[in-house]
Every structure is written in C-alpha cells, then in structure tokens.
Design a protein that fits this description.
mainly alpha; five-stranded parallel sheet; two-stranded antiparallel ribbon; 57% helix
Length: 783
Amino acid sequence: MGLNDTVRVDKTGPVEEMIERSAVICLYGISGIGKKTLVRMMLEKHSEVYPLICSIEDLSPVPREERQGKACTWYLVRPLEERPYPGLNEKFWDFLRKVPREDKVILATGGKLPEELLEFFWNGVMDIVYPSTFWFTRTETYRYIKAQKSRLDCEQAYRFTGGWAGCLALMVRILRQYPDRWSTKELWSRYEIRQYIRKQILDRLPEDEKKLLQERAAFPRLERELVSLLWEDAQEELEENLFVRGIMVFVPEQKYWYIQPIIRLEIPAVIDEKRCQKAIWWYEKKGYAAEAIECCLRMKDQVRLRECLIRNFTKVPFLPYLPKLDVGRPDTPELFYIRWMEVFFRQDTAEMRKWYKRAEACLKWAERTGRQREMWKEVFFNIAYTNPEISMDEWMGLLEKLIDPGKPIRLYDMPGEAVSWLSGLRDLSELFSKSKEQESHYRKVWFACLSEENRLGYEIARTEYLYQTDQIAREPERALNLLPLQSSWKIRVGILFLMYLFVEGSREKGIISEKMGPLLEFLKHEEDEICRYNSMSLYYLAEARAGEKEHLVRWFRDTGGEIVNKAGKTKLHLMAAVKVHLFLGNYDAARKALDLFLPYVEKNKIWKYWAEALFQRALVEKELGSDTAAMRYLAESFRIAEPFRYVYIYIGYGKKGEKLLCEYREWVEAGTVTVQKRKKKYYYRNVKTMPLLDWLDFIIRKAGKNQGKYLEERTGGKGQEVLTETEKLIFQYLDRGYSNSEIAEKMNVKITTVKSHIYNIYKKLGVSTRAQALSIGKEQKIY
C-alpha cells in the first residue's frame, strides 16, 4: 500500500487475482485503512483503464467513444452508506448486462455490504476484499518507517497500530516535525490521533456496536469460550460487523480475536468487576498470564494484581511489553523472585549483590521459623542459578547440601530467551567438562534434586556440549529422540536448535524441510512472541548453513539486516544477528551487535557464547584491517574456551575463518604464548585431554573440511572469488545505475558500508572502475 508519492508498500496482489475473475470488487474497512491508495496503485498498473468516479445511484455504462481511447472502464463507486437501497438489485443486474465483460466495478464500504448487493457475492459475480488484506505486516511496517527515515519505533508502531496504514502515516508525519520531542508511546496519545479515531471511526458507529466495544474493551483477548462465560448473548452479528469494519481483528491460527490496540485505547471501557474476575480466572487457566495481568491493571485493583502476580510469578519476568509494576514490598518469595529478576535484567551488579544477601537472609529466616520454608528454598536456588557471581561448582554444592532428594525443587527457567539450553540464563559447560567421575556425580545430584523438565533440560544441554566438543555424531534423530510427546515450547525450541546445529552443508538440505519444518510449523503458532522469533531465526540460519541463502538475502533486503527483539529482556537474541551480518559481509553491523553482546555474555559468564563472540570479533577486526586486535581477541577466545574445549564454535566461517585460525596457530607455536608440551604420535580419546596445539590442529582440520559450507567464499571463473550474496545485491543496484547514496538508502545501511562492499567487488573482479565491473558482470553473468 502506498502512503505517499515516494513510499510504496504494494498490497494489490490479492485484488489483482480477484479482478481477473470477478466483475465487481467490494473493499471493506474503516477510514484510513488504505482503500483509496490501493485503487490508485491498481490504476497506475493498468494504463489501459478509463476510471470513472460515480455514486451507486448514478451508475450507468460509459459509451466506448467516451473512454478516451482506453480499452475498458473501471467504475469507482463512492463509499456506500449503511442504509437500504430500494431497487438497487435489479438496477445493478441491468447495468452489468449492458457493460462489456472487461469493464469492472469497484465498491467501498466502511461497514457491511448493503443487503441488496449480497446476491452478487453469492453468485460469484462479486469478490470482497476484507480488512486483513490491507494491514501491513511487520516487515512492511519496518520498510515503510525506514523508507520515511522516521525515528518511529518499528516494533512498537506495529504492535499498537496492528499495521493500520493510515494511522502509521499520521504518526510518521507528526514525528517528522518534532523528531526528538515525542517517544512512540507519547505519539499514541496525541490529540490529532485520538480525535481522528474518535471522530472518523468511533463516533460514526451505531450505538449497539459502540456499547459492545465498551463491554469488550476491558479484555485484551477474546475467544468463544470466554465470551460465552462472560455474556449470555454473545452478539455474534455485532462482532461480525466490527470484523468487517476492521475494528476487531481475528487471528485464525489461534482462533481468538481482539480490538485493534490503538482503537481500544480510545474506548471508555465499562469495568464490570464480576466479569473481570471471571476473565482473570479464565486467562490464568489457559496460561495467558499477560492478559490476566492486563485485566487487573484495567480494574486498577492493586490487591487483585498482587495476587495475580504471585500466582504467575514464574512467567512474569519474561512477559514482553509488560509495564513497570509497583506491587509494594516484596514480602513473599514469589514477589521477591520477580524483583530479583528485574534487577538481573538491568544487569545492576551492586543491586544484585544487595538482593542476593537479602535472599540469603530470607532463606535463613525461613529455615529458622519454618514459614514457607520450601518455597523460599526453591526461590533462593533460582536466584542463585542466575547470579553470575556464584559458580556452577558452588551452586551444585549448595544443591547437594540443602535439598532433600525426596523433595526435588524446580528451576523456573533454564534457557531464558536463548535457543540454547547449554548457554541460557547460565552456562552449564562447567557440568560437562569435569572428569568422568565428577560429571557422573553432578548428574546424580541434578537428577535427584531437580524436577523432570530440568532433567530433560540437562540432557539437551549435555547433547549440545558433546556436539560442540565433537564427542557425538551429527544425527538429527538424536535430537528428536529427546523430544517427549508433551513438552513446553522452550523444550521444542531447544530441540530445534540441536537440529540446526546438526545441519551440515548442502547434503543435509532435506533435514530442514523433513525434520525442522514440522517442528517449526508447530512453534510458529505458539502464543509467545520470543518463541516465534527464535524459531524463525533458527530456520533462516539453518537454510544459510545448508547453502539456501535466497531467503536470508530477501530478509536482509526487507529489514535492512536488523534482528529486532524489543520484547527481549536479555541480549542473547543478538547471536543470530551477528552470524547473519558475518555471513552477508556486513562487518560494521556485526561489530555494532558484538559491542552490545560481548559485555552481557562476559558479565554473566556464558562461556560458549563468550568464546564464540570473541572469535567473531577477531574475524571482524581482521576484515576491517586490524590484525593485532584480531590476534588479541582470538587469544582471549581460546583462553575462555580452553577449559571446555569447544570445537564447532570455530567452524563454519569459510576460508577466512580457517586462515585466521592458522595464523593464530603459527603465532602460538612461535612462542608468543606458553603452551602445553605436545606428545608425539599420541591418539587422544577426545579433545578434553589434548594439549593446546593438538586441539588447535583438530579445529583447523575440521574448519578446512567445512570450507564449502556455511559462510563460504568459493572461487569462480578466471580464478576470482565469487561475490557474497550482499555484494550480488549491490551489483544489481550498480547495474541499474544507482548511486552509492541511493544504494545505501535502498538497503537501509550506511554509505560507508556500501563503499566497502563496492571495494570488495572491485578487488574480487580485479577492476578499478564501475564500468569495468559491470562489463565483467554481464560477461560472466555474476548475478
């Protein structure tokens, strides 16, 4: 859908198909949804059309000689009113019999189709374009806002407008005048936007529909079961009217509906306390904690909010977009845990130390008095689990000392927002890098003192560790065998991550569709936003790892290479962003992401990601011309990784990765750092017992075998290196005559990044000018 003369988001695809088969098209939806823009774009595509604007009453055939030489006529009927049209049925049939088959009629209405015209829809003469066709997707919202060069927060804008084009355009225009004055949240309450919603939409509704909205506005999510619980009369016909207008939105995958968020904010909700209590109970029963909390907030009942938080305390820390909640003194173990997690997510070391001491004091008090002793004990162990100043050995010692094997406790969350169970809220590598006897002992303690899901989490984490240290074969079935019939989405994402790791090169492409595909399809319909986000990130990376890069490049073109996770409370989602940027050769963007990511994993001692991120930073520094910094980062990476002997975190980075590893090995062997003495002709059982140089050699051999896989740089004709996917995309823009600044704008990157890519293109092709590059490109059909 286009919103002005320069920025276009094309939503005409479905309508193009309809207009091929139907004589009449009717556009449903509220003001500002994009009906006019869609028609304008359709007319631009069809230069053979003569457009005629008229009312439904004045509809009459246009003589061929009045078409100004055009092949056909499109009759653009002014918006239909919500009233009877006596005699319209016969008149409309008569009109359609008289006009040529190639002529079309395009109607528009802000509500239901007049009863007199329903027959045309039933007989297949008319097609209806419902409001869902007009809504922008997340990607389209991103592209529109970026193309407008607006500071509007893309994720928040999509979340609160639901992709409503007219409202997005209004917010962008207001913010353009005062770019530093208002936050995205403040824009939602601007007089101009609120009055538009009131005057152009809400005030024009019939009274019965207004009343229904006021009753429903207190409830963020509606399902048939909930509606039947709260109201004797579901008033389905009125709801259907609101769906047709686009004020209510139906989500078919999850079979629920809701009022458009920004419209809901303007509806004076009728708070019925009994209904709200029932809804809170129902939301909690279904596992919709965020909706239950929102309902409490709408009631402005602090007591009920506090009770709701206590019942859902394990979910609250990870709920996205939850407003800051003031529940007073955290005098229960549940509220204490929520407060601790708030401090943990802020990464405030001084506050974490203070609250950890309080947790120790609360545990001693509970042990002494016996009041809520088991609950305080479980909360304390969850707090200690996320405390980066408590080592894994210390934590396991406390577990063995304080927990009765007959009364296992539960870790509320192991991976957090990570896809990896090995490196989630805490890195578990320390459990598996011990001697065989110590590892076996820790396993017995873990299984005796922790819950069943925690035991499964242990097995998933151990499988990943064995993979990362090359102690097991890459067998996707091994991951699937860990998956129980009934399991949480976090378990399923962990399994999906293992399958992603097991995808190696183009020969494994079938795994993606056969194994990962069904699991991904299941996860795509999960309620949790982080689940859907992580699943799609893994799928894109798996395709790239298996050599299928087209989807990844298309994603880059649509989003500018940003992986946005505004709902996230940790930095672990940046791991996918770094890998994507390295794959695409966007080293400046990779460095920027690593600047955010490295401090987090270092502070929280997430060993695997810390070592891998340091290696990635070494690759970035090498490509940006800083060899000394590259060696320094690589030395630090191996210092972190050495106790755990990771292998595969260094593999999959093509020739550049292998070359950097070889340079580092030479540097080590030259005596720059002290190394363990090597044993000649000794065969080690696994990497855990190898001296440093043998471990390095093992990694380099593995990296050499994987050169042609993920992040590869093959050589093409005449010996030159093949361009990366990003360079091919830029080459296409060069061929179209775009300037560097225009390419930067198209791709949503800095002009310096474009220049760097163009320099690499010239270097690979052995040329010094654009004309020479284009000549060779056409000759060799580079893209």
